[in-house]
Here is the input.
Amino acid sequence: VQPRQAGADLVEITGAKGKPATDTYKVSLAYRDGFMSSGTLMIYGDHAAAKARSCGEMILRRLARAGIRPERSNIECLGAGSCVPIQPLRDDVTEVMLRVSVHDSRRDVVERFTKEFAPLVTSGPPGVTGYTTGRAPVREVFAYWPALIAKNVVQAKVEFC
Amino acid sequence: MSNKTTIRLTDIAHGRSGDKGNHSNIAAIAYTPAGFDYLREHLTAEIVRGYFIALGPTRVERFEAPKLLALNFVLYDVLAGGASRSLRIDTQGKALALALLQMEIERPPNLGELVRQATRH
Here is the structure.
């Protein structure tokens, strides 16, 4: 399209093209998809990123030893490059926020995971802190499925209330 | 400006990114028409795909919006499940545009025409 100043407070738009309406509607579906939780700890000291990574693995290994293996998990070293994980982690930072997250269809697996953070503060390496908000909450996941549906199977109805 | 042989994209463009399901939308917007010509020639879908390869894009599409001096990239399946089920801190890929702008590029010979022009306040 071509906008043109046609006068004061007046913009003319030309060259717009359109297409006929499609035979589908967009539907935003949500479905139950298990449970998730994320916990964070502040890791301080030399090689904080490697140390944080190691602490995260410790949490997951301790769980595995107790027979708990979450379907999905992720360890992030925030402040060392994990926000956009496309580069190796930076080794020149002295503090890193460790964030460990899990996702599982079983609520009790995720609950059990949330109990592994406090022990890392009390009986883990020095320089582990920031356990200020207590045990991380478990949340139910409503996953998103954008889809198309044929208009001819939808009966449109408008209600005023 | 220094005499380095490389610059970063952020010297000639700004950007913004977001999500749709598990796909990421990344816009790179040039500051000047010459900057847009540069982006159009050098910032190919293939380059962007390579830059974000660690996120596992299954496909990268590029769209041009010349009137906005902008390129828009759609990176498929890079959000680790998308906003509601991603385990990453940046569930919606809001940081991806700024990550793209960190890309080092060869210093263009006409750099003066590409950088942001001073604006009157």
About this structure: Chain B has a mean pLDDT of 93. Chain B touches chain A through 21 residues (CB under 8 Å). The beta strands of chain B are 6-8, 13-20, 23-30, 60-65, 70-75, 104-106.
